[in-house]
Specification:
Length: 216
């Protein structure tokens, strides 16, 4: 059985990266989006990227960033994954994919089955879909729970992941109901918006890894 991937998103300090890596996260997310409480400048994201150990893959998150600025950010930060969290088209995802060695992920607000089906247009353009709760104030990181029933028995045609309001208390049920191969948490492992809590990160990773080991 493949390992469930665990992404801790919106990290802003070296200590938080260490906490995620030590807890067994497979991916860490760095947000470059000015309105977010987790926003990092390109220079700060590059410093944190350099701090990240080889055991974790670094995911850079952008929102509708123009192609030139995206290319500059990728050059500077050298992430392993680019997560497009706005209204980026499949053509745009495909262009990035074909011009880089990056994994490209597309976040999709899952509000009904039709939104899942529409996301299939990213097949071949993005490597993975990240289903997140729709309708928050910000494009992501809202701590809103996605209705897992939408994903139950859904026949996925692409690699995918589950985000939206996950925390140590609900991640096992989320995995059980949806069979998610990747779980992603941000607000649920914070003590305040933008402030990651090492204890909550540890508890989240422990719960997800425990569920994985139990074959959930
Ligand atoms: O985290 C942010 O502040 C953010 C801002 C703008 C776009 C995306 C953002 N985060 C994306 C993520 O991958 C989050 O982990 C995901 O939306 C889940 O967040 P949460 O519901 O808070 O766990």
């Amino acid at each position: 059985m493949p390992e469930t991937l665990i992404k801790i998103c919106g990290l802003t300090t070296p200590d938080a990266i260490d906490a995620a890596a030590d807890a067994g996260a497979t991916h860490i997310g760095l947000v470059h989006y000015k309105p977010s409480p987790r926003h990092l400048s390109i220079a700060d994201a590059a410093k944190l990227r350099a701090h990240a150990p080889d055991s974790v893959k670094v995911v850079l998150l952008t929102v509708d960033m123009d192609p030139k600025a995206t290319a500059e950010a990728l050059q500077e930060i050298q992430p392993d994954v680019l997560q497009l969290h706005g209204k980026e088209t499949a053509e745009w995802a495909s262009l990035i994919r074909s011009n880089s060695d990056l994994e490209v992920w597309k976040a999709v607000g899952a509000k009904d089955r039709a939104s899942l089906e529409q996301a299939e247009k990213y097949k071949g353009a993005a490597h993975r879909l990240l289903f997140d709760a729709a309708g928050g104030e910000m494009p992501g990181g809202n701590g809103l729970l996605l209705d897992w029933r939408l994903l139950m028995n859904y026949r996925h045609t692409m690699d995918w992941g589950l985000a939206g309001g996950l925390n140590a208390d609900n991640v096992v049920d989320a995995m059980r109901y949806t069979g998610a191969p990747l779980v992603d948490a941000s607000s649920g492992v914070e003590s305040a918006p933008g402030k990651k809590d090492p204890t909550k990160i540890k508890a989240f990773c422990k719960a997800a890894r425990g569920a994985m080991a139990a074959g959930v």
